[in-house]
Amino acid sequence: MDFFQTLLITLVIFAMLVMGYAVIAGSGVAKAQKRRVQAVRYRHSESLDAKVDAQFKRAVAARKPKTYKVAGSASRLQALSMRLNRTGKSWTVTQYIYVSVGLALAISVLVFATSRAPLLSLGVGLLVGAGLPHMVIGYLINKRTNLFVSKFPDGIELLVRGLRSGLPVTETLGIVATEVPGPVGYEFKSVIDRIKVGKTMEDALQDTADKLGIAEFNFFTITLAIQRETGGNLAETLSNLSEVLRKRAQMKLKIRAMSSESKASAYIVGSLPFLVTAAIAFLNPEYMAPFLTDDRLIVAGLGAGVWMGIGVLIMAKMVNFEI
């Protein structure tokens, strides 16, 4: 089998995987229709709760960022820059691309030196070069997000105490920036810096909310915006928000504890084929040698690995519960 036939088989396998994913994910037309029907129901309902809910949804929709709504909606480079910014590191897109390309070339050369299989070397190099930096960035984002969420209710409580003592909102934000350590203080300091250069407090908070992409901070931003429009006791509103965020964190911990058994089972089932393959390659290298030289077995191995990876991702989504 020549190279072009091998490449054709590989493209057919990936096309089948993409079509399978499209069938599983769906087109989203039914969801859009459901949202439109629900919007009409809210608009023509006589219930006070429905009208309040519709008004709140309109306020939330109006608060969405104008230039950056969803990661990747404007451009891939902008989405990547946003992800790098969420890690709290001073990394740039250029540095990320250099690291990914260098890692892919290094792994490809290493695999080719040991296997002499160009197709396998290219596949493994691209997989590691594209996947490993993405996983590291995701890990850093999750770590910083969890640290922010754990300290954010304390920052709100400090803000409430400052408001009850008679201080203005901007000054209490500065106190939170200096007193609360970690990413909470850093992000509030960035809000104060934006206000100092001429932005309104609402726009400064919205910029930070767009940067972080954390639901808890979006709740805080929307609460301040609605309170500025409707009036009321801001300290009492923020105190209730702090209590809600603490209960939300407790609920997340309960869900994590209840789903730990399912996650452990998914990890074992997902990693077992790869572990068995590595064990066979270590115990009987002659049996696995054709997978490094025969083009048909290389394509079959790559297709099986990608298919198992998709299965692992599906199991990870099934045992990952969000509130």
What can you see in these coordinates?
This protein is an all-alpha fold. It has three domains: 1-62; 144-249, Type II secretion system (T2SS), domain F (Receptor-associated Protein), CATH 1.20.81; 259-323, no CATH class. It contains 15 helices and no strands. It is elongated, with a radius of gyration of 25 Å. The chain starts with a helix and ends in a 5-residue tail after the last helix. The model is unreliable at 64-72 (pLDDT under 50).
CATH class (first level) name of the largest domain: Mainly Alpha
Largest sheet: none
Radius of gyration: 25 Å
- Tally the helices: what do you get? 15
Number of strands: 0
Strand content: under 5%
Distance between the termini: 51 Å
Structural class estimated from helices and strands: mainly alpha
In CATH, the architecture of the largest domain is Up-down Bundle
Number of domains: 3
What's the quick description here?
This protein is mainly α and 323 residues long. It is 83% helix and 0% strand.
Keywords:
15 helices; mainly alpha; Receptor-associated Protein; single chain
